[in-house]
Write a structure and sequence with these properties.
The complex is a heterotrimer of chains A (238), B (174) and C (541).
Chain A (H helix, E strand, L loop, with lengths): L2 E6 L2 E6 L4 H7 L23 E4 L5 E3 L10 E3 L3 H17 L14 H8 L16 E2 L5 E4 L8 H10 L4 E4 L6 E4 L16 H5 L5 E3 L11 H11 L7
Chain B lengths: L19 H14 L7 H12 L4 H11 L3 H10 L11 E6 L2 H5 L2 H12 L5 E2 L5 E6 L11 E3 L2 E3 L4 H13 L2
Parallel strand pairs in B: 1-3
Antiparallel strand pairs in B: 1-4, 2-3, 4-5
Helix pairs in contact in B: 1-2, 3-4, 6-7
Chain C lengths: L2 H13 L4 E6 L2 H4 L3 H14 L6 E6 L11 E5 L4 E7 L6 H6 L15 E3 L4 H4 L17 H6 L4 H9 L2 H11 L11 H10 L6 E6 L8 H8 L1 H15 L3 E6 L4 H16 L15 E6 L9 H8 L23 E5 H5 L1 H7 L1 H5 L9 E8 L5 E6 L4 H8 L9 E6 L5 E4 L9 H6 L8 E6 L4 H15 L5 H18 L5 H17 L3 H5 L2 H9 L1 H5 L6
Helix pairs in contact in C: 7-11, 7-15, 8-9, 8-11, 10-12, 19-20, 19-23, 20-21
Classes of the chains: A alpha+beta (238), B alpha+beta (174), C alpha/beta (541).
Chain lengths: 238, 174, 541
């Protein structure tokens, strides 16, 4: 296994050849904001929050899919990057209907946390107030499309870890929407195994346990980590 | 939004009385011709829409089962591409080109004329299923701009008046 | 199939030629103006006048001057004389066309006069046809016509006399750059795929010509489909691929139909399939139809669509040359790029490199449309000044006014002001002006055009065509479109303009694929060259 040496935010770091910048940074205790990334499932590079500057390249690179290279010099926190990140989070708030005060995930929401980390105290962009629905047809879970940021974590976790692929994205552009099977109420889905991995994977309060009230929705990320260790890394033998 | 490629064959007088069962038999032929290959999904959806006029939920379910694809995946693909329609469309189609060349030559006014005349918006079908109105981004006949496509026939150099004249007979008959 | 068979077909085709030939344009633009009926009536009139053994009627691809459709040309083959071009030919003019032929019986009275086209106009004389060398001359539905023009001989030459490395080397030396928009050196791309070690490789032709106002690829595919197939086969030999795909948009039914015919003909003659020209080289081509998604012109989205998925781009690297279709190395080139391959093989890399400018070699096909007198298809050497294209060839603005700008590169491009019309058209010069070469659509705008409205139009396009995967493009285009609408309606304050600029900067630098990265280009280029149009609409606070 070849080892590469690189510099991230003036810190000398060694990483394995196949590691991404994000993994290398995390291992070194350097925080890079992410939203669509979830350890254990495939990366899509869609949220653009983990973009970093690499010396010698005029483009910005998503840390979640960029592999480390020898001698690379990376900046993760420039003013420009922070400005872009803040604007991206603003756009997400303006795009959906995110009202933290009445949200089940209040205090446990990655979107909310990102906004606070980036110092986004108000939204300068125009709110879109889209007309979105809430699906409470499932016995145990609920889906509130108003809070969905279209990160596709639920789709990937259901496809890659559970193998059911009940979720997918329908439509495109601003009309994109996460759907169940043939765009039917979740409770009527013949393919859902009710495993709850999507609930654990959701970064916001869009997919939640029914019966939870404001701030009660804690995402059980350790469950996903456990399953990844079992299914993909084959970490224990019986 | 469609041009030439999706003329529903069932509107043809000779095949008008072909039963639904026969259509399903033809659907099986299509699937077999593509060897039930998952990567042929878009080609299959094109041909199934040609056959049935639009993509009903039952058809999508059947295709998903035959190709062994997740239901949501088939639904996701069918809704991603603008040429696929999940709802029945009108007997006649009026497609206004909103490509750049047509736009600088007044396509916006043509679209407004069509919408006002038919009392529906682009992307909709009249309640009596007589006419569907939609827009397209350039079928590549910019030399004739601005163009409107009536029932798969490209008509060039259109004006609000010529559009009205062409729409009249389409709205009358069923 | 051997070279002697190929030469035989060409010989027979030449021998069957009659003294006169009537060419009717049967490309989509002319078909829309009833050219198929004109062609049929001409055929019937010739047969009725018992002139069939001296006069041939054939359908051909685009004859360039689309604004005067339908076009009919009359060639005198023996003894050779300059051709005549008739414009806007109607059905009642058919007898007049027949009557102009020397062997025609005495014409009856009441003939409708013909509109004769001027073939000495700069629109025609300034053209240099390489890609379009056969377009408008041969019947696209007959492989024999293509073979008679020397078709499939380059493929034979490559298979028999050149190693794959030599082919790649020839492409590199020719200096050909991708005609899809970005201008990546074609030889470099081929070399990357050729070097990749894999069990399977693919060659893909991008015929998803999505830019509104662009119809170059449509014209090539409708007028000379075999040259694209031959170019793809040569590419496949050079990189070691055995399977090809042509991804074509469903809005081009005529091109799809002609490609189907062409592929079937080539397969039947053994020019595609197994053991081509009795060599160990196998190559199949399949068609894949788009379904109305502009983003599928982006190569990673296009590959997803070929695999039957939602046409959503993925981050590069890995590039298709390393991991493409189903994870295998894949060569993706545009229609026009493949159409340049045969002439380069036939005439040599040095010949091609002698045309054009230092960094942009060869010719470029443009579709000129909009507020211009002569709309249609032109092919000019790289480096031709915009003024020559717009004023000399295009004949200036249609109703006698002056041009305000030319939009190039579609929704990813920008608007070039009239003051910069002396710029030579090549990749670098257009980029310097804040636009791009793009695929070759050129829309001329007159003084009445409001550039803010044009920027808003393109933003609406990008908003509608955004796949929705990455946030900057999905949400940013919505916000920018709203701001531009606000400006157009005269409701915007200077702060809105500032916010618009900030959004442009962010979307340009953070979006995942080319669609998002270039979505702000029409705004940025109009802000740069036509700031007054914006300021006139903004009211001070």
């Amino acid at each position: 296994m070849a080892v590469k040496t690189l510099i991230i935010d003036d810190q000398l770091i060694s990483a394995l050849e196949e590691e991404t910048l994000l993994q290398a940074a995390q291992a070194a205790g350097i925080h890079i904001p992410t939203l669509c990334y979830l350890e254990g499932i495939s990366e899509v590079g869609a949220c653009r929050l983990c973009l970093v500057e690499i010396a010698g390249s005029s483009k910005l690179h998503p840390a979640c899919v960029t592999k480390v290279a020898e001698g690379m010099s990376v900046r993760t926190q420039s003013d420009r990057l922070q400005k872009y990140r803040r604007l991206i989070i603003e756009m997400l708030f303006a795009e959906g209907n995110h009202i933290c005060a009445v949200c089940v995930a209040n205090g446990h929401c990655e979107l909310q946390q990102l906004a606070m980390d980036l110092g986004m105290d108000h939204v300068t962009l125009e709110y879109q107030f889209p007309n979105r629905l809430v699906d409470l047809s499932h016995d145990r879970f609920g889906m509130d499309h108003n809070r969905c940021v279209l990160c596709t974590r639920c789709i990937r976790v259901c496809d890659e870890l559970e193998g059911a692929h009940i979720w997918d994205m329908a439509g495109r552009g601003t009309r994109s929407q996460v759907i169940t099977d043939l765009n039917q109420p979740w409770g009527t889905s013949p393919t859902c195994t009710s495993c709850g991995k999507c609930v654990a994977a959701c970064p916001t309060g869009a997919i939640f346990h029914q019966g939870s009230t404001v701030g009660e929705m804690v995402h059980e990320r350790t469950r996903i980590e456990f399953i990844v260790n079992a299914r993909q890394n084959h970490q224990w033998q019986f | 939004m469609t041009l030439h490629s999706h003329t529903p064959k069932n509107q043809d007088s000779s095949t008008k009385h072909v039963s639904r069962a026969a259509h399903f038999k033809m659907l099986d032929v299509i699937l077999k011709r593509h060897q039930y290959r998952q990567d042929a999904l878009i080609e299959i959806l094109h041909q199934v829409q040609d056959l049935f006029g639009y993509l009903e939920t039952d058809l999508l379910r059947y295709i998903a089962q035959c190709l062994r694809l997740p239901l949501s995946r088939v639904y996701g693909v069918a809704t991603f591409y603008h040429l696929f329609s999940l709802a029945p469309r009108g007997t006649h189609r009026c497609v206004v080109c909103t490509g750049t060349a047509c736009y600088v030559k007044g396509a916006a006014a043509l679209l407004t004329t069509v919408e006002q005349f038919a009392h529906i918006h682009a992307g909709e079908t009249t309640p009596d299923h007589c006419l569907s109105v939609s827009t397209t981004r350039c079928p590549g006949t910019c030399g004739l701009a601005p163009i409107v496509v009536f029932d798969d026939q490209v008509c060039g150099y259109q004006t609000p008046n010529s559009v009205r004249d062409r729409l009249k007979p389409l709205l009358k008959q069923t | 199939m051997d070279i002697s068979d190929l030469l035989n077909i060409a010989d027979q085709e030449r021998q069957s030629q009659t003294a006169f030939r009537i060419r009717c344009c049967v490309a989509a633009g002319c078909v829309a103006t009833n050219s198929l009926a004109v062609k049929e009536n001409l055929q019937m009139a010739i047969t009725a006048a018992e002139m069939a053994d001296t006069v041939q009627v054939c359908g051909v691809g685009c004859m360039r001057l689309c604004s005067r459709a339908p076009l009919v040309a009359v060639d005198q083959v023996t003894p050779a004389k300059p051709s005549l071009l008739y414009e806007t030919v109607t059905l009642d003019q058919v007898p007049t066309v027949v009557a102009t032929l020397p062997s025609a019986p005495a014409s009856r009275s009441g003939a409708v006069p013909l509109q004769q086209g001027d073939l000495t106009h700069p629109f025609f004389t300034h053209q240099r046809s390489i890609v379009l060398e056969n377009t408008g001359l041969i019947d696209p539905e007959r492989i024999e016509a293509y073979i008679a023009m020397g078709g499939y001989r380059s493929l034979y030459h490559v298979l028999r006399e050149m190693t794959p490395t030599e082919v790649v080397d020839t492409m590199t030396r020719s200096g050909l750059r991708g005609r899809g928009g970005a201008g990546y050196p074609t030889g470099l791309k081929w070399a990357m795929v050729a070097k990749a070690i894999a069990d399977r490789k693919f060659v893909v032709c991008n015929a998803d010509e999505g830019d509104p106002g662009a119809f170059m690829d449509r014209s090539v595919l409708e007028g000379d489909p075999h040259r694209v197939l031959e170019g793809m086969a040569i590419a496949a030999y050079a990189v070691g691929a055995t399977q090809g795909y042509i991804y074509i948009r469903a809005e081009y039914p005529l091109a799809i139909q002609r490609l189907h015919i062409a592929i079937r003909q080539a397969q039947r003659m053994g020019l595609l399939g197994s053991h081509i020209f009795d060599s160990p080289f196998d190559f199949r081509i399949d068609l894949r139809t788009g379904a109305g998604a502009y983003v599928c012109g982006e190569e990673t989205a296009l590959m997803a669509s070929i695999e039957g998925k939602r046409g959503i781009p993925s981050p590069r690297p890995p590039y298709p040359a390393e991991r493409g279709l189903w994870g295998f190395p894949t060569l993706i080139n545009n229609v026009e790029t493949f159409a340049n391959v045969c002439p380069i093989i036939r005439n040599g890399a040095e010949w091609f490199a002698s045309i054009g400018t230092e960094k942009s070699k060869g010719t470029k096909v443009f579709a000129i449309a909009g507020a211009i007198r002569n709309t249609g298809l032109i092919e000019v050497p790289m480096g031709t000044p915009l003024r020559e294209i717009v004023e000399d060839m295009g004949g200036g603005v249609s109703d006698g006014g002056t041009a305000k700008a030319v939009q190039t590169g579609g929704p990813a491009g920008g608007c070039i002001p009239a003051s910069a019309f002396d710029t030579p058209v090549d990749y670098e010069s257009l980029t310097q002006l804040g636009s791009i070469m793009g695929s070759g659509g050129m829309i001329v705008m007159d003084q009445q055009t409001n550039m803010v409205d044009i920027a808003r139009y393109f933003m609406e396009f990008c908003r509608d065509e955004s796949c929705g995967k990455c946030i900057p493009c999905r949400a940013g285009t919505v916000q920018m479109h709203q701001l531009l609408s606000k400006i157009c309606e005269g409701k915007a304050a200077p702060a809105d303009l500032h916010l618009l600029e900030e959004l442009c900067d962010m979307v340009k630098h953070t979006s995942l694929c080319g669609l998002g990265q270039s979505a702000p280009s029409p705004v940025l280029s109009t802000l740069r060259h036509f700031q007054d149009d914006y300021l006139a609409l903004i009211h001070p606070e």
